[in-house]
User: Which sequence fits this backbone?
């Protein structure tokens, strides 16, 4: 019988089994008494075995068989599902995942699984079980290699998993209906123009706009995916890293059903992994240190996704040691990133943001405090490139919280179009906190540089020309002068020649070599067919 | 008239393969179910001549389901289809009222053979 028509189905269904299997193992380690979970694990291994046997994939059959066998022995109370067995089962499910990938690619992975099968067949819990001793944490000077090999296991194969998406049939139906109505409307408009019936054209145009609006909404919906799409791997990641560090960490995930644009999901996975890693490596104390501090020996990391109108908030909380703003400031001064005066004025919130400065911390100087900085500059950069924001809160001794606030979709955004000399450029409206018209008398000069008073601070003004390394304007500055103030960086006020308009733009990503341009994050095509760049205010400020 | 079949298996993959084989052999697949509840719901509305039943299902014990099916619709013949091949289990399903047992992995021939025996 020709089985090839069933291969895709085999691959997708196997993947679901393997993914669920991994999640369940991790859950079971938290509460080993759940016999229903063991039954379910057994069922996944069993189904996979049956499917692989039908397709004739013997390597998969062998591994699934022994996984099933080990689980049936757990089920009959021959032994418990303790960490060594969980490790072996996870190793098995990883091997299965690779084999299924080989099936999908149509290539033999060439992987030798006989040793794994042998280890499963001869598994002896008595010989393997070592009481779990959390490694003692020496405080400062604990060197964590910047790229531990463990991370490789969790490298996201985004390019594969994001290539195709499942769309609700209902959403597609809506798209079809709206398209149908648009076509009808186009004929109506054509007819009205032919008869040049102004009122009828107007009405038809109004309808066309409304339909286009609906179409846009539906297309957006089709791009939405639940957060769970990237979250499946997090429990496993936390578990593996914690075990490697000899720490006990309980991981909670809330709100995984909340939907985001797939592009945003794709970009945000890596930053979340960074923050989780940092929380496990540096934020969380070892069990004995926690107990000494009067906390439960096992730490908790909570990942929560919340919807707030057209934004999503992803927060990662740990109940670890927290950060000391004074030490962070001190380090910032030592590194020459800020003056002692600036440091004195800094709020704790601003001090925590220091860890997102490039070069604030490197893996080589990891300590219990500065170690937080590994990769955080990359995290903030990614969040900002998605027009989002990152806030950090911390309480010494009781933990830290990282909150990423992101728009639900990024493709179409409201923007402010401004013009400065030869350039016309779009600023995403969500980074513009205000626009001001300044009379010449309102502009003050601090050390020869223009500034203006906003609230109780003097905000230096940079001309947008200057920010883009263009020559200064030939004539006198216009009066009043338009200034836009952005919600980013340390010098966020830009003077422009004029504010052209506010409109919704469809942002397209830039490809090499344009993607290397500093200060722009994308491009858009205007109604009259011109290409405008979209400003990356964070990079300009 | 073609004999009618209901396939009960939580794997879409398995259901599609069985569907393909059965259609090729002249059966009419009138229902597919992925769970015990779905299977019973379907059984109440369609009364298939044959039920192909996987006994490991997410929501119910397949053996209990087998007993319920035989009790409610004794005219439908239940063929248990499983990769659990221990003789004790096979005998138990037959004792509980199954008309036959198909060992997974199956081939089109093994299915044809078992179903033909049922019709004879």
Assistant:
């Amino acid at each position: 019988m020709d089985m090839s028509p069933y291969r895709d189905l085999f691959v997708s269904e196997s993947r679901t089994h393997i993914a669920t299997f991994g999640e369940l193992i991790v859950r079971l380690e938290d509460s080993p008494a759940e016999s229903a979970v063991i039954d379910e694990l057994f069922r996944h291994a069993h189904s996979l075995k049956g499917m692989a046997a039908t397709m004739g994939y013997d390597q998969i059959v062998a591994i699934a068989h022994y996984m099933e066998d080990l689980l049936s022995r757990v089920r009959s109370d021959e032994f418990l599902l303790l960490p060594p067995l969980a490790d072996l089962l996870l190793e098995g499910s990883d091997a299965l995942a690779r084999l299924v990938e080989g099936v999908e690619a149509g290539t033999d992975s060439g992987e030798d699984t006989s040793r794994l099968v042998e280890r499963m067949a001869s598994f002896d819990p008595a010989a393997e079980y070592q009481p779990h001793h959390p490694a003692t944490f020496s405080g400062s000077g604990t060197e964590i290699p910047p790229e531990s090999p463990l991370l490789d296991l969790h490298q996201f194969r985004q390019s594969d998993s994001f290539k195709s998406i499942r769309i609700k049939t209902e959403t597609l139906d809506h798209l079809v209906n709206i398209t149908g109505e648009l076509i009808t409307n186009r004929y109506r408009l054509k007819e009205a123009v032919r008869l040049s019936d102004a009122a009828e054209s107007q009405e038809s145009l109004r309808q066309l706009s409304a339909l286009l609006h609906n179409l846009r909404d539906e297309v957006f919906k089709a791009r939405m995916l639940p957060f769970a799409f990237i979250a499946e791997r997090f429990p496993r990641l936390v578990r593996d890293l914690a075990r490697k560090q000899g720490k006990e960490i309980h991981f909670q995930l809330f709100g995984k059903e909340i939907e985001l644009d797939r592009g945003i999901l794709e970009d945000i996975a890596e930053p979340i992994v960074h923050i989780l890693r940092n929380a496990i490596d540096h934020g969380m104390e070892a069990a004995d240190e926690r107990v000494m501090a009067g906390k439960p020996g096992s730490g908790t990391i909570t990942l929560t996704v919340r919807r707030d109108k057209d934004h999503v908030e992803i927060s990662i909380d740990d109940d670890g040691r927290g950060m000391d703003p004074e030490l962070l400031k001190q380090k910032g001064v030592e590194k020459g990133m800020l003056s002692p005066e600036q440091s004195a004025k800094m709020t704790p919130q601003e001090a925590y943001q220091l860890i997102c400065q490039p070069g604030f911390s490197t893996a080589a100087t990891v300590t219990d405090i500065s170690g937080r900085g590994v990769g955080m500059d990359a995290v903030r950069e990614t969040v900002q490139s998605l027009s989002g924001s990152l806030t950090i809160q911390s309480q010494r001794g009781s933990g830290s919280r990282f909150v990423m606030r992101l728009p639900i979709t990024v493709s179409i955004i409201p923007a402010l179009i401004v013009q400065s000399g030869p350039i016309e450029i779009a600023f995403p409206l969500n980074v513009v906190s205000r626009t001001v018209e300044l009379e010449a008398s309102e502009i003050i000069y601090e050390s020869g540089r223009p500034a203006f008073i906003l609230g109780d601070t003097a905000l230096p003004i940079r001309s947008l020309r200057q920010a883009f390394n263009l020559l200064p304007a030939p004539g006198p500055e216009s009066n009043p002068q338009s200034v836009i103030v952005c919600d980013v960086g340390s010098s966020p006020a830009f003077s422009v020649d004029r504010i052209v308009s506010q409109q919704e733009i469809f942002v397209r990503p830039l490809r090499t070599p344009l993607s290397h341009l500093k200060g722009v994050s994308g491009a858009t095509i205007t109604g009259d067919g011109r290409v405008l760049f979209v400003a990356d205010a964070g990079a300009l400020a | 008239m073609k004999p009618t079949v209901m396939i009960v298996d939580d794997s879409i993959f398995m259901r599609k393969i069985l569907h393909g084989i059965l259609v090729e052999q002249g059966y009419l697949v009138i229902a597919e179910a992925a769970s015990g509840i779905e299977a019973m719901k379907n059984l109440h509305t369609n009364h298939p001549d044959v039920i192909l039943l996987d006994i490991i299902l997410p929501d119910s014990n397949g053996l209990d389901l087998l007993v319920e099916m035989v009790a409610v619709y004794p005219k439908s013949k239940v063929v248990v289809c499983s990769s659990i091949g221990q003789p004790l289990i096979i005998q138990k399903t037959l004792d509980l009222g199954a008309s036959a047992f198909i060992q997974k992995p199956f081939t089109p021939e093994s299915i044809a053979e078992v179903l033909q025996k049922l019709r004879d």
Q: What stands out?
A: The first strand of chain A starts at residue 224 and ends at 226. The mean pLDDT of chain A is 81. The CA atoms of residues 188 and 204 of chain A lie 7 Å apart.
